[in-house]
Amino acid sequence: MLDQTDNQKARGNPIMGEGQAAESNKGMSRAKWFRLLALFAIIAIWLVPAGIVDIAYRRQRGPDWTNYSTGNARLPDDTIYALATDGKGYVFIGTRNGFSVVRPDGTWDAFTPGPSGLRGEHVYAFAVDRSDRLYVGTDAGLNVMHPSEGWSFYAFPDVLFRPAVLALAVDAQDRVWIGSGAGLYVFDGTGEARLAEHGLEIPFQDGITALAVDGSNRLWIGTDRGVAYLDPAGGGRVFAEPDSGSPDRDVRSIQADSRGRIWVRWGGDGRSISVYALDGEWKGFSLGEPTLGQGLDIPMNLAVDAEDRVWAGLAGKLCYLEGDREWICYSPTNSGMGHWDPSVLLVDATGRLWVGSQDAHSVIVGDDLRELKGRYGVSVWDLSQGLPQRAPRELVRLRSSLTSPITTVRRWVDEARGMIELAPGFFVPLTALAALTTLVLIADALWLFLSPNRRAAVLLAVLLALIVVEVACYPIGSIFYAIGQY
C-alpha cells in the first residue's frame, strides 16, 4: 500500500497546492527554454564568426579551376606524367595508361596501349615534327604516329629500372632528339634512330632525363649527373660539378624563356631551380627546404608563360617566380587550384596553364607524410584573363582556427569520398553506419541537454565524447583497411 507521502505525490502533491505545482511546472518549462536558448546562442557564437570568415575566404580565393578527369573527359587515367603542345594548338596529355589529345576546338581523343597501336603504358614525353608526325616516348620505347594514323615503333637497349624514353625535342633542322636510358639518340631523316655522335663526355648513369632546344638552336641535355649543351655547328659544353651554381644531379626539366635564359629544375627532391643567364653565369633558387628524394621516373617539370614567369609545382603548392626574387604560391587551401601534387605543368599557345598530378608516391608536407591522390587528372587556368586569385595567408590561418560545424562536416565528407573511391565495397557501409550513429548520438545529446537532471548531464557528457570520437576517428577505418591489404 502507498503511504501518505506516496499518495500525495500520486495526486500531484496537494500539500503544495495546485497553484504552487503549476508554478513549479512553469519554472521547469522556463528552464527548458532557457537551455534551448543557451544552446542556440552557443551555436551562433561558434557558427557566425566562422561563417563570415568562410565567406570572405571564398571570395578572395577565387573560383575553382576548370578540372578534367576520367569522369568528365576522354582521359585514360588520372595519373599524369607529361603535358606538351604543338604549333597548331593541340595539347597532349601523357598518363599512366596511354595519352589524350585535346584539339583546339575543345574535343578530346584517347589512345590506350594495345587497341590503338600504342606500345607501352606510361607516357613520359611528346614531340611533333614539321610533317605532323607525333613522337610519343613511353616505358617501352618510341612510338611514332604518322598523319595517316599508322604507327611505327622503335626499341632501345634495356636499362634496368629505367623507362625507355624520358625526353624528346625537335630542333630547327627538324631532327628529333631522344633521351633514353641508354643515352642520346637522334632521328635525322634516315628513318632510323641512331646513337648521337657529339664528341662530348656527358656524364650519366641513369640516361638522358631532359631535353630542350633554345632560340639559338642549341640542344640542352639534362642527366642524373648534370647539364650540357650541343651547338648546332658542332661542339658544345658540359657543366661539370665544379661549375658554381650549375645543376649537378638529377635534372628533371629544362625550359628556355623569350630572353634566352635557360631554366633547369634539378635535385633529388626537385626543389632546386637554376637559371643560366645571358652573362654565362648560373643563379640558383629553391622552392623550399629539402625533403625526401623522388625517383627520376616521377616527372617534375617547369613551365614558362608569355610574361616569362617561371612556374613550378611541388607537394602542396604551385608557384611562379615574381621578378626573379620571390615565389608566389597557390595551394588547395588558399585558391581554387585543387591539386596537392601539381608537378607536371604546361603553358599552351593560347596562354592556358595546365596542371597535372600523380598519385603514385608519398611526400613530406610540413611535418606530415601524405599519400598523394589527386582528385583531378588535369586542371586548367586561362592566364590571358589574369593570374589566379588566392586568399591572404592570415585569412587562411584564421579560417583554419575557426572550425565551424559546416567546415567539420565538409572535411568529413571529403575524407569519406576519398575512402569510398579507394574501396567502395568496404567504405560505403562503414560510411553509412558512421553517419547514422553520429546523427543518433546528436539527437540523444539534444534530448539530454533539455532534460533538467544531473543524470542527464552525465549522460550528455558521455554522448558528446562519443560524437567527437565518431567524427574524429572515422579515418581509422582506412588504417584497418590498409592492414588488411598487407
Overview of the molecule:
This protein is α+β, with helices and mostly antiparallel strands and 486 residues long. It has 2 domains: 30-61 and 399-485, no CATH class; 66-396, Methylamine Dehydrogenase, Chain H, CATH 2.130.10.10. It is 27% helix and 29% strand. The chain has 7 helices and 30 strands. A 4-stranded antiparallel β-sheet has the order 1-30-27-26, with no helix packed on it. It has a 4-stranded antiparallel β-sheet with strand order 2-3-4-5, with no helix packed on it. A hairpin with a 5-residue loop joins strand 20 (272-276) and strand 21 (282-286). The longest helix is centred in the first third of the chain and has 44 residues, at 18-61. It is elongated, with a radius of gyration of 31 Å. The model is unreliable at 1-16, 360-374 and 474-486 (pLDDT under 50).
Q: Give the averaged pLDDT, no decimals.
A: 76
| CATH architectural group of the largest domain | 7 Propeller
Give the count of structural domains: 2
Sheet of most strands: 4 strands, antiparallel
Tell me the strand order in the biggest sheet.
1-30-27-26
The percentage of residues in β strands lies in: 25-35%
Number of helices: 7
The CATH fourth-level homologous superfamily of the largest domain: YVTN repeat-like/Quinoprotein amine dehydrogenase
CATH topology call of the largest domain:
Methylamine Dehydrogenase, Chain H
Question: Which percent bin holds the helix content?
Answer: 25-40%
Extract low-pLDDT stretches: 1-16, 360-374, 474-486
Query: What's the CATH class label of the largest domain?
Result: Mainly Beta
Q: What would you call the shape?
A: elongated
Give the strand tally: 30
User: Mind telling me the C-alpha Rg?
Assistant: 31 Å
Distance between the termini: 68 Å
